[in-house]
Specification:
Strand content of chain A: under 5%
Largest sheet of chain A: 2 strands, antiparallel
Oligomer: heterodimer
Number of strands of chain B: 0
Helix content of chain A: over 70%
Distance between the termini of chain B: 49 Å
Number of helices of chain A: 12
Radius of gyration of chain B: 19 Å
Strand order of the largest sheet of chain A: 1-2
Structural class of chain A: mainly alpha
Shape of chain B: elongated
Largest interface: A-B, 45 and 66 residues
Order of helices and strands of chain A: HHHHHHHEHHEHHH
Largest sheet of chain B: none
Chain lengths: 257, 193
């Protein structure tokens, strides 16, 4: 007589043995297997004795109260819409318009009597401020995308073990367009610090944009390492903070990136 | 009528964060239960609960309604808890998941049905609790996770393999090894009862 293996008994215990009826019949007739199964049952019943700490009735509320300050409710609820592809055509066109207007104002100031120069100077400040706001938004979107990528989880189903970075990949492709425009502006206006950060960001965006939609854990680690080695998240965060400071009208004229 | 998880998720996606509060309050106990079974201590379990909901919030756009929200949440919790216990084991050795003195640990008296247990009964109950705890601690992180999901959470082997992102055979063998280790550790005890 072939006795049941321990694996078969375990599967039978959990109701996952394919040949359940056959096993039931065997256990009824085989004392050795029946004894082994009873021991298994007693062991697993003993494990059941491990109690859980009792939780207060308002435990869920307590969890929420600790959690809520850590959530960026405004951003997290809307940032994906912010990054939604359909907005990108408009965003890139707007960025291009801003850059063109900014560059035109910088390089082709209209010669005029003092009162016109004053108007041109204040117009230049307004253009600069608008560009800073757009740049600040671009950096914030980039930062959010990088954070999201860093927190990516493995996929299930057919692509078990692989990470789905299709959303971040598409976002990186779209961010690349704007980034090139801003980098160009920074280079042409001699702002080396800004150009350097945007250049580093562009390298990372390129890597992400050229990655496949589903990456293996090893590929993902390699991507993450590149991001970490560049220190790009820190650079974007610091640069973005500086840009936001300069968005304020009192600071635009005096401040530099 | 009570709002469904799907409706609450839609609300959050539309910008209403209170929808997420509903989900937290509804699922936090079950997530804690899973986390506690896996980590073996309350502090780590609370950490897992917080981090699970934080990740769920950030990744809400990845949630596809093919699986229930609870199942999706469990995957996040199980994987984070698995990473945590692996990390603890790497840094602190085999006793990493043991409850710290002074921290809330399993109360042996919770398992004693008699309102006035004698000292022998209490002592024996303590012994059982301790041995069960030690036996669970002897499992590898993957074995413990697979066992907890199968034994306490009632997930099938297929579901466990999806949750952990491992093959069906790997999930099955993790459970086998876990049960075999538990049997070897606890058989003398159960035979003495």
């Amino acid at each position: 007589m072939n006795h049941l293996t321990e694996e078969q008994l375990i599967l039978y215990y959990y109701g996952e043995a394919g040949e359940g009826r056959g096993m039931e019949a065997h256990l009824a007739s085989c004392e050795d297997c029946r004894s082994a199964y009873q021991t298994l049952q007693r062991v697993l019943n003993t494990v059941d004795l491990a109690p859980l700490p009792s939780l207060a009735e308002e435990y869920g509320t307590e969890v929420w109260e600790r959690l809520e300050p850590r959530l960026d409710r405004r951003r997290s609820a809307s940032w994906r819409r912010w990054l939604a592809p359909r907005r990108w055509a408009a965003a890139v066109a707007f960025a291009a318009m801003l850059v063109a207007a900014f560059l035109a104002g910088r390089w082709h100031p209209a010669p005029a009597p003092p009162r016109v120069e004053t108007a041109a100077a204040s117009g230049s400040q307004v253009r600069e401020r608008v560009l800073l706001v757009a740049l600040g938004d671009h950096l914030e979107r980039s930062q959010l995308m990088l954070i999201e990528l860093a927190n990516a989880e493995p996929a299930g189903g057919k692509r078990k073990g692989k990470l789905d970075i299709s959303f971040e990949r598409n976002a990186a492709e779209d961010l690349l367009e704007s980034n090139r425009l801003y980098r160009l502006t920074a280079q042409k206006t001699g702002n080396l610090a800004a150009a350097s950060v945007l250049d580093d960001l562009e390298r990372v965006l390129l890597e992400i944009a050229h990655s496949p939609e589903h990456v293996s854990p090893a590929q993902f680690q390699e991507l993450r390492k590149q991001i970490e080695d560049q220190g790009i998240l820190f650079k974007v965060k610091v640069f973005g903070s500086r840009v936001r400071e300069l968005e304020s009208p009192s600071k635009t004229a005096a401040g530099k990136l | 009528m009570e709002e469904s998880d799907l409706a609450a998720v839609s609300r959050v996606r539309a910008g209403d964060g209170d929808g997420f509060r509903l989900l937290v309050e509804r699922h936090s106990r079950s997530v804690f239960r899973l986390a506690y079974r896996m980590t073996g201590n309350q502090q780590d379990a609370e950490d897992v609960v917080q981090e699970t909901f934080l990740r769920a919030y950030r990744q809400l756009d990845r949630y596809e309604s093919r699986a229930s929200f609870g199942t999706w949440l469990y995957r996040i919790a199980a994987n984070y808890a698995l990473d945590l216990i692996r990390s603890r084991k790497r840094h602190a050795g085999a006793q990493a998941a043991a409850p710290e003195p002074g921290a809330e640990a399993w109360d042996p008296l919770l398992s004693v049905p008699s309102p006035a247990p004698g000292p022998d009964r209490v002592a024996f109950s303590n012994q059982v609790q301790r041995q069960v705890s030690e036996a669970l601690d002897s499992l590898t992180p993957q074995e413990r996770t697979a066992f907890v999901l199968r034994h306490f959470e009632g997930q099938s082997i297929d579901e466990i393999s999806l949750t952990l992102g491992i093959g069906g055979n790997a999930a099955k063998h993790s459970i086998f090894r876990a049960v075999q280790k538990l049997r070897r550790a606890l058989e003398p005890l159960v035979n003495a009862i």
